[in-house]
Design goal:
Blueprint lengths: L9 H7 L16 H18 L6 E6 L1 H15 L6 E7 L10 H10 L3 H8 L1 H6 L15 H12 L8 E9 L12 E5 L7 E3 L7 E6 L7 E5 L10 E4 L1 H11 L4 E3 L4 E5 H4 L30 E5 L10 H8 L5
Parallel strand pairs: 1-2, 2-3, 3-11
Antiparallel strand pairs: 4-5, 4-9, 5-6, 6-7, 8-10
Helix pairs in contact: 2-3
């Protein structure tokens, strides 16, 4: 938020306007959202206890942090506890799920990879956040049971906190333009013992080829999907997913090239909690123009999408100043 190369000095802007900032850290960011919400709850109650005066709180988070704080505030209300929060904010939070290319998810069990690769799809947080999940080489990806259970638990807490005003921003554009990556292109290719392995950007429709998995002395496997729309080039905050996998493969002794290092991670419609944005069928449109949709379609009271899709959770003047201007006075 404040490091070298940051487009907007968010922390400095808060201090210049007289706000205090409390940063919450987690012992393990890959733990369950429900477990890490306990840390947020403690931080909220501790802040209220140590606060001088009665200024209301603003509570929120970046990426998964927005889900953690959303759940924590909602649960405090169910428990009839006064969180004294006037504003909730989320920054490129996957309210309706995040995207990790299926080819990557299939490659990991195919390799029986090390813990760094397994953590991409097997951590409790990943299982809860990913809209499509797979731990097997074969089979159509579906929401993991942990995600289904978390959404039920969130619904049991009222889905959203009711007292604060709810705002959020998306690092993805809101006009349905996307990042320019086309469907069906080679996103990653490998050499060495994996020579012939190729992962593709997600095509829409049935029998869509997303991966060719090849390893010395093993039968090659082609991976297809039937129910997933075009996602890698969709409007949304981008993540260096293929780039990260290529780097890990090189460390494992399999030279690899990421032809599209970064693709969509949090679709814009997910970041603004667009109603019915579950992308459940290949006919669903992740490129919908959100600017033409009525605000009531969102679970947020107000939101802003970036002018152009950029890096997930990157702090920009456009998004950061919009948030600062909406903080309680």
């Amino acid at each position: 938020m404040e490091g070298a190369g940051t487009d907007y000095k968010f922390i400095s802007a808060l201090h210049q306007r007289g706000y205090d900032l409390i940063l919450v850290g987690y012992e393990d960011r890959t733990k369950s959202i429900v477990d890490n919400a306990k840390t947020v709850t403690e931080a909220i109650l501790n802040t209220i206890g140590r606060r001088e005066g009665n200024a209301p709180l603003t509570v929120g988070g970046f990426s998964m942090g927005g889900l953690i704080t959303r759940y924590a505030l909602a649960k405090l209300e169910i428990q009839k506890m006064d969180h004294q929060t006037a504003l909730y904010l989320s920054y490129d939070t996957p309210h309706r799920g995040a995207w990790l290319p299926v080819g990557i998810q299939k490659l990991i069990p195919f390799l029986l990879g090390d813990s760094r690769m397994l953590g991409l799809v097997s951590s409790p947080a990943a299982k809860q956040m990913l809209r499509w999940h797979s731990e097997q080489v074969q089979g159509e990806p579906v929401p993991h049971k942990d995600r289904v259970d978390f959404l039920k638990e969130l619904d049991r807490m009222g889905n959203w906190p009711r007292r604060p005003r709810l705002i959020g921003v998306a690092n993805g554009d809101g006009q349905g333009v996307g990042n320019g990556i086309k469907a069906g292109e080679v996103a990653l290719s490998a050499e060495g013992d994996l020579s012939g392995t190729r992962l593709f950007t997600q095509p829409p429709g049935r029998n869509a080829l997303v991966g060719e998995l090849v390893m010395t002395d093993r039968d090659p496997i082609s991976v297809h999907t039937d129910t997933i729309p075009e996602m890698d080039g969709a409007p949304g905050g981008t993540l260096n997913n293929f780039g990260l996998v290529a780097a890990l493969l090189k460390q494992l002794g399999a030279p690899a090239t990421a032809h599209h290092p970064s693709t969509c991670f949090v679709p814009s419609g997910s970041a603004v909690d667009l109603a019915d944005f579950d992308l459940a069928t290949s006919e669903a449109d992740p490129f919908a123009d959100l600017s033409k949709l009525p605000l009531e379609r969102s679970g947020l009271d107000e939101f802003l999408c970036a002018s152009n899709s950029g890096t997930h959770t990157s702090m920009t003047a456009e998004l950061g100043s919009w948030i600062v201007d909406r903080l309680p006075r």
